[in-house]
Every structure is written in structure tokens, then in C-alpha cells.
């Protein structure tokens, strides 16, 4: 017995020692990949010494003798701080995520291969102007020099994640940056998913189903979808979107159809206190750790430029130079069409074209799968575009038997010069020159806000599909691929459309149904003169215009005026909730109960309105449609029909449904937070979870890599913080302003910037999350274009010396 005890003791001690040694080794190799920001490196690819001056917040200020040397150094800085993110974004664009993440990434890889981001990027490289080609080549050389330094000096493989994933880091190519830009463009557009949803709604209730989105102003629906395809039937829908699905969507940081939003607004010098134009821009993206964005300052031959970049793309997407400020927002145009192609019976290699049965253009590719079986896929193309299978989970619900879907998208161009436009914009000396440069944009179509000494303006840029007047669906739903009238008649550059008056312009994405734009317009017009601080206040506004519009309407016949019910009863809870909402100003403040009550009530109301007509398909309507609820409660075009529960004997009216929905919402919230409605808090459930792609879902590691914090705001506030809308965490904030910037041209160095996490992608760096707290509190950092100020405040300077 004593011998056994001794051996158990020795084994225990050995395991403890092994654990300690393993922990020390892991820590050592992990910290080896932390870059030294105050070091010198001899590198190939530059013509003269270059300095990367790091501010307190780890923002690189890059100084070199030529633009090519500056872009080279930006590649080094991006790779120093975000090498894993860069390689993951590249893999997402190439369709090679499964090589490191395993079978769960197969749908993403399949879609990326079929859309051909990398192929079209490689073809588009030749279309770029010479300056852009040099910039892309220099940037790629800078990334590659840092990879070489990592290998030469054993710097922990460049990022700790590379110890967990079998990634052979291949050298960067200029086309890789264009491929990531195409991935960003695809992520900006929800047009394909919108078409498929309208078709599913039409199949579920041909007469009125699409009203859920059409009454929200999401486009026309001219005829039932079933009328286009004989025998089309809605497949049995199932709840398709889960928290695991969201993680798979974000495993590459970006995925086609995710949806990207923005606010961008500006006012001219005559409406500012300091006598210079003001411009604000915030970009709404899925929340990841690290953030999609990275702050940087470049000293180009044309002058300094500063603002937000995306690692992998050598351009300031939103920012300013000494003469010009710019901000961007996705235009929300219908840039994609889904075509339903009939496959020839008995011959799967042919489809029905305009002139008869036509051969698919095919090729085969192999997707390598970590810890799984490699997949060989056959890529097919029609006259309309590539055949897709995973562009949206609901696609299989609308495809008749013997049919496949193809897609046409403006971003599939092989002469796409959007990269040249973005790089050229940084050197533009004024609005006129900027608009000329931006005429080359193809995808994504954007609303670009510009400000300089002459004033402010807003332009629509990008490729716009043209459809025939007799198009069967006008692009609102999928169309038979063999119909000539369903084809695009042309693709034209966007016209330069000015929005707003001569001294103020406002731009937001269109997904909010105009509510966010209306709120911004109100905020900007209620003051005659603006300052940087008033623009910051507008950018951080958390009043929900949807709540202000809907609550008086939904609760019109419910507001409590009589004697209070007995404490602890459901009636008293309803009375207390209605009293709180009646006195609420619509502020989606994380410390208040009203935003939670309102959000739960509206979600329950919408679900109760649509579930009996749509059945399980209602599970996929996971975002609120205020215009639909408004139309139903006002009985616009007979929309009050949605209030009657078809399966019940009585004829319910909208007031009854509203009261029942409130009671249900209160019951569910009471189960979580107790019966006292005044003690509930929006921030208890509305938490921003910045997920680390790849490691965020791993037990233990997720606790280290992910960032979670309660936040104010909501789906329709200017400070956008959209909720997940589905179980198990329906109020978890899944998107937000990954970047905010306010540019003051009267005092440029007072311009302010912030991203949602930190500059570093290394979880052991103090810069991994040092900006997250500022972001949550609505604070910013300043970044100067004065070289002396940048050097005076430097905490480290990396020197690149020609070899």
C-alpha cells in the first residue's frame, strides 16, 4: 500500500511539473510573437530608411522617402499586429479556411470558390493604374519581409494562433489585397438574401407574405413567386440560424451577405463654430476580436493621410489628408440577381438557356479539409453567372425540383478598378479630384461623403445594374434564367447624386428603413451651428426612432389610467411596464429597464402577427420590421389582417394581440430577472461580444480571446448596436461601429478616431483590448498629422533600413 502511495505521489508531482513546464513553454513561445516596436531591421524592398512611429495607442505613423516605401512599411505594420487576421481574411477570399479550421468551414469555402474572389482579383490586377500596382507590390513586399523576419529570428511564428493551426504562411501577393476587397464588397451586400427571403414569403402566403418586407420599403413584388415556376412549393423550413452559425459566418472575419452599414454626415464651414467643415463616419460591422479595422497614418508625397484601414488592404477607407476628409457608407443598391436555372432532365451537364439546352461551363477544384476528407467540387457557370449552392440557407426552399441557382453580381467583374479608386482617393487634393478618382469604383457601390474648404458633398459611386421595364420581378425575387427579359440590359457607373442641401449632407445604409437617417437629420437640423463635440454627440446618439414611432401606436388603447392592481400580479406588472414606457424618451440606455421591455414586446408582437401565417418560416424573421408593424396597426392597405389568428375561433383585433404580446414578453423576462420590472436592465442582455474567429468558440480559450461588455443603443439608433434576434441570446449585440471618426478641417489635429478593440491582434499584448473600454464609453483618441507631434508622443519607433 505504501509503495502505491509513493508512486501516486511521484506521478502527481511529475504531472504538476509537466504542467508548469508546458505552461512556461507555451507562454514563452506566445510572447516571442509580440513585436518589438522599438527595434531596427535590415530589409529588402525599400529605397531609403523608413520609420514606423508608434503612438501610445499603438497607432503607426509611417514616414518614408517615397510612397512605395510607405506602403512597404504599412505592410510591415499590418503584419506585425494582425498577421493571423490577414491570413484568415486571405483564406476566406480564396476559399481555403477548411485547411486550418476543418469541416465547419466547407460552406464558406464552397461559396468563395464558386464566386471566384481570387480568380477575379487576379484578373483585375492588370486593370489597376500604375501607381496602384506599385503600391500593392510594395505592400506585399512589406508583409513578406515581416514573415521573413519571423522565420529568421524565430518570432513565435508571427502570432500565437499559428501554434494551434497547421498554417504554412505563404508569401503575400498583390492580388490577395484585391481579393479581400472583393470579399468586403460581397459582405456589404444583402441583395441575394433579400431576394430569397421575399420568394420564401411569397410561397408561404402568396397574397400577402412579402408584405413583411415590402411594407418596409424593401422593393416591389409584382406577382407571386409560384407564378414564375410551375409546381414551386415552399420546402419545410426549419430554424436555420444559431449561435454556432454566426460563429461560422465570422470565422473568416467577413462572409458574403453579412451586411455592413454606416453613418456618414458632414456640414460646411459656415455652419461650424471653428469655421471649417466637419465630417463624421462610423462603419457598422460584425463584432470580432480583433476589430476588422486598424488605425494608421501614412506620410505620402501628396501629404499625410490618417484614418481606418483593413489589414490586407493598403488604403485608408475613411479618414482625411490636409485638404480633404472622406467617409463611406454602403449604398444599399440591388447589385445582385438570383437566377433559377432548369437542368435538362437526364443530362445534368446541360441547362435551359435562351436558345435551348446549353452546356454548363465546368471546372473541378479540391478543398483541403483539416481532420476531414478532402472535397472535390464541380464549379459550374451559366450565361448568367456561377451556380451557387450555399449563398443563403433558405435557397433550397425555393428551388423547384430539377433546378439550380446561379448568381450575377457586379463584383464579378474582371476589370474592377475599385482598389485604384481607394488608393487614389488618399492623394486627392479636393472634392472634384476625389470624385474623378472614385468614378472607377465597381463594388461595393457606396455613398461617399466629402468635405474640404469649399464645402461638403455626397456622391453615389459604383456599378449599377440596369433591368428592363418588363423584368418579371425587377430584381426583387429570383427570376427564371432562360427569360431574356430577366437579364441585365447594362451595367453603368453610378451617377453622381448629391444628397442634402448645399451645407449639410447625411448618408446611412438603407437597411434601417430611413429611421436612422431621419433621426440624424433631426439632430443636425436642431442646431444652426455645429462643433466637433456636437458631431460626436450625434454619432453616439442612442435614441431609438423606432421606439418613439411604435410605442404610441401599439399602446394606444393600453396605457394604464385606473387604480393599480395588487402588487405581484400579472396585471400590476403590465401596469408598471406601461407606466415606464409612457414616461420613456426612447433612450436605449444599458442601465434602464425600458429598452428591454420595449424590445421584448415588439419582438413578441411581430412574432405573434406572422407566426400563424408563416409557421416555422417565422423563425428566420429575426430582425424587427417597424414599417410592417406600423402598417398593420394603422391598417394600411388592409394590413390589419395580420392581427387575426387564423387557427383560433374568435377574430382577434390588433389591440388584443398587442396586449397578449406584452404579457408574454413580461412573463419571459420575469423568469430571468424576477417580477420587479423596475429592476430589469437592458445591459444585462444587450452585451457586445467581440468574437475571435477560430478560437472564440473553444472552451477556455474563448474566455481569453473574446471581449464581452454591456452596451447601450439598438438596431435603429444612430449609435447602431444590432441584436442577434434569435435564441439563445436574442438581445446579444452582434454588430456595431467597428470604427468611428470625426474629422474637423478647421483644426485637423483635433479630429478623433476609435476602433472597437485594440490595434494588436495578439491576446497577450496590452494593445489587444486597450481601446475597447473607450469605445464602449463613447470616447475617442486623437491622431495628428504633425510629424513632430507624432515623434514627440512616440512610445516606440521601428526603423526599416535598406539591406
Automatic annotation (TrEMBL):
Transmembrane domains' residue ranges: 7-30
Q: A biological process (GO) annotation for this entry?
A: antibiotic biosynthetic process
Q: Key word Hydrolase present in the record?
A: yes
A Gene Ontology molecular-function term? metal ion binding
Which residues participate in Ca(2+) binding?
195, 334, 337
* Protein's UniProt keywords contain DNA repair: no
Keyword set, alphabetical order:
Calcium, Hydrolase, Membrane, Metal-binding, Transmembrane, Transmembrane helix, Zymogen
Its cofactor is: Ca(2+)
Q: What Pfam families would the database entry show?
A: Penicil_amidase (PF01804)
- Note accompanying the cofactor annotation: Binds 1 Ca(2+) ion per dimer.
Regarding protein family, the annotation reads:
Belongs to the peptidase S45 family.
Name listed for the protein in its UniProt record = Penicillin amidase
Q: From which organism does this entry originate? A: Paracoccus alcaliphilus
Amino acid at each position: 500500500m505504501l509503495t502505491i502511495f509513493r508512486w501516486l505521489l511521484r506521478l502527481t508531482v511529475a504531472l504538476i511539473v509537466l504542467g508548469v513546464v508546458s505552461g512556461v513553454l507555451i507562454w514563452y513561445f506566445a510572447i516571442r510573437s509580440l513585436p518589438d516596436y522599438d527595434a531596427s531591421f535590415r530589409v529588402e524592398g525599400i529605397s531609403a530608411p523608413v520609420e514606423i512611429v508608434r503612438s501610445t495607442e499603438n497607432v503607426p505613423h509611417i514616414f518614408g522617402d517615397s510612397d512605395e516605401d510607405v506602403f512597404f512599411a504599412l505592410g510591415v505594420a499590418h503584419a506585425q499586429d494582425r498577421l493571423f487576421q490577414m491570413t484568415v481574411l486571405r483564406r476566406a477570399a480564396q476559399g481555403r479556411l477548411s485547411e486550418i479550421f476543418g469541416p465547419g468551414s466547407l460552406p464558406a469555402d464552397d461559396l468563395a470558390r464558386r464566386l471566384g474572389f481570387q480568380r477575379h482579383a487576379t484578373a483585375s490586377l492588370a486593370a489597376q493604374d500604375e501607381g496602384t500596382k506599385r503600391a500593392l507590390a510594395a505592400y506585399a513586399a512589406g508583409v513578406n519581409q515581416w514573415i521573413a523576419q519571423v522565420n529568421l529570428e524565430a518570432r513565435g511564428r508571427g502570432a500565437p494562433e499559428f501554434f494551434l493551426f497547421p498554417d504554412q504562411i505563404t508569401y503575400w501577393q498583390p492580388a490577395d489585397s484585391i481579393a479581400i476587397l472583393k470579399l468586403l464588397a460581397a459582405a456589404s451586400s444583402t441583395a441575394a438574401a433579400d431576394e430569397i427571403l421575399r420568394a420564401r414569403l411569397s410561397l408561404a402566403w402568396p397574397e400577402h407574405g412579402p408584405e413583411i418586407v415590402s411594407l418596409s420599403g424593401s422593393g416591389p413584388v409584382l406577382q407571386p413567386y409560384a407564378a414564375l415556376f410551375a409546381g414551386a412549393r415552399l420546402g419545410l423550413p426549419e430554424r436555420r440560424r444559431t449561435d454556432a452559425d454566426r460563429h461560422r459566418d465570422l470565422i473568416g472575419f467577413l462572409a458574403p451577405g453579412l451586411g455592413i452599414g454606416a453613418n456618414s454626415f458632414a456640414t460646411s464651414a459656415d455652419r461650424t463654430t471653428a469655421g471649417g467643415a466637419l465630417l463624421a463616419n462610423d462603419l457598422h460591422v460584425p463584432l470580432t476580436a480583433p476589430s476588422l479595422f486598424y488605425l494608421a497614418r501614412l506620410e505620402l508625397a501628396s501629404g499625410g493621410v490618417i484614418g481606418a484601414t483593413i489589414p490586407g488592404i493598403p488604403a485608408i477607407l475613411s479618414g482625411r489628408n490636409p485638404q480633404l476628409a472622406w467617409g463611406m457608407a454602403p449604398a444599399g443598391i440591388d447589385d445582385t440577381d438570383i437566377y433559377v436555372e432548369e437542368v435538362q432532365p437526364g443530362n445534368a451537364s446541360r441547362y435551359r438557356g435562351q436558345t435551348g439546352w446549353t452546356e454548363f461551363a465546368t471546372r473541378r477544384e479540391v478543398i483541403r479539409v483539416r481532420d476531414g476528407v478532402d472535397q472535390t467540387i464541380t464549379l459550374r457557370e451559366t450565361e448568367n453567372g456561377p451556380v451557387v449552392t450555399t449563398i443563403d440557407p433558405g435557397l433550397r426552399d425555393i428551388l423547384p425540383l430539377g433546378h439550380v441557382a446561379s448568381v450575377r453580381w457586379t463584383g464579378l467583374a474582371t476589370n474592377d478598378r475599385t482598389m485604384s479608386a481607394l488608393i487614389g482617393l488618399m492623394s486627392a487634393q479636393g472634392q472634384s479630384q476625389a470624385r474623378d478618382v472614385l468614378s472607377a469604383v465597381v463594388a461595393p457601390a457606396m455613398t461617399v461623403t466629402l468635405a474640404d474648404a469649399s464645402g461638403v458633398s455626397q456622391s453615389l459611386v459604383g456599378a449599377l445594374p440596369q433591368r428592363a421595364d418588363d423584368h418579371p420581378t425587377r430584381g426583387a425575387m429570383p427570376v427564371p434564367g432562360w427569360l431574356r427579359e430577366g437579364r441585365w440590359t447594362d451595367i453603368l457607373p453610378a451617377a453622381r447624386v448629391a444628397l442634402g442641401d448645399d451645407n449639410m449632407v447625411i448618408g446611412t445604409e438603407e437597411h434601417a428603413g430611413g429611421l436612422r437617417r431621419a433621426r440624424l437629420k433631426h439632430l443636425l437640423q436642431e442646431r444652426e451651428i455645429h462643433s466637433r463635440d456636437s458631431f460626436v454627440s450625434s454619432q453616439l446618439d442612442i435614441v431609438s426612432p423606432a421606439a418613439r414611432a411604435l410605442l404610441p401606436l401599439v399602446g394606444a388603447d393600453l396605457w394604464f389610467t385606473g387604480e393599480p392592481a395588487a402588487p405581484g400580479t400579472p396585471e400590476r406588472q403590465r401596469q408598471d411596464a406601461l407606466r415606464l414606457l409612457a414616461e420613456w424618451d426612447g433612450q436605449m440606455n444599458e442601465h434602464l429597464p425600458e429598452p428591454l421591455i420595449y424590445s421584448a414586446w415588439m419582438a413578441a408582437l411581430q412574432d405573434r402577427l406572422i407566426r400563424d401565417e408563416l409557421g416555422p418560416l417565422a423563425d428566420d424573421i429575426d430582425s424587427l420590421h417597424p414599417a410592417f408593424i406600423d402598417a398593420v396597426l394603422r391598417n394600411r392597405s388592409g394590413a390589419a389582417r395580420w392581427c387575426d389568428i387564423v387557427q383560433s375561433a374568435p377574430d382577434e383585433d390588433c389591440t388584443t394581440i398587442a396586449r397578449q404580446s406584452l404579457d408574454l414578453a413580461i412573463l419571459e423576462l420575469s423568469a430571468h430577472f424576477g417580477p420587479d420590472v423596475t429592476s430589469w436592465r437592458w445591459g444585462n442582455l444587450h452585451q457586445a461580444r467581440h468574437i475571435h474567429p477560430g478560437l472564440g468558440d473553444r472552451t477556455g480559450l474563448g474566455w481569453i480571446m473574446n471581449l464581452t461588455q454591456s452596451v447601450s443603443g439598438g438596431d435603429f439608433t444612430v449609435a447602431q448596436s444590432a441584436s442577434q434576434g434569435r435564441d439563445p441570446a436574442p438581445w446579444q449585440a452582434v454588430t456595431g461601429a467597428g470604427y468611428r471618426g470625426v474629422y474637423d478641417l478647421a483644426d485637423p489635429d483635433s479630429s478623433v478616431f476609435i476602433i472597437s478593440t485594440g490595434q494588436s491582434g495578439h491576446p497577450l499584448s496590452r494593445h489587444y483590448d486597450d481601446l475597447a473600454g473607450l469605445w464602449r464609453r463613447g470616447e475617442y483618441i486623437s491622431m495628428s498629422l504633425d510629424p513632430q507631434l507624432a515623434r514627440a508622443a512616440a512610445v516606440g519607433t521601428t526603423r526599416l533600413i535598406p539591406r
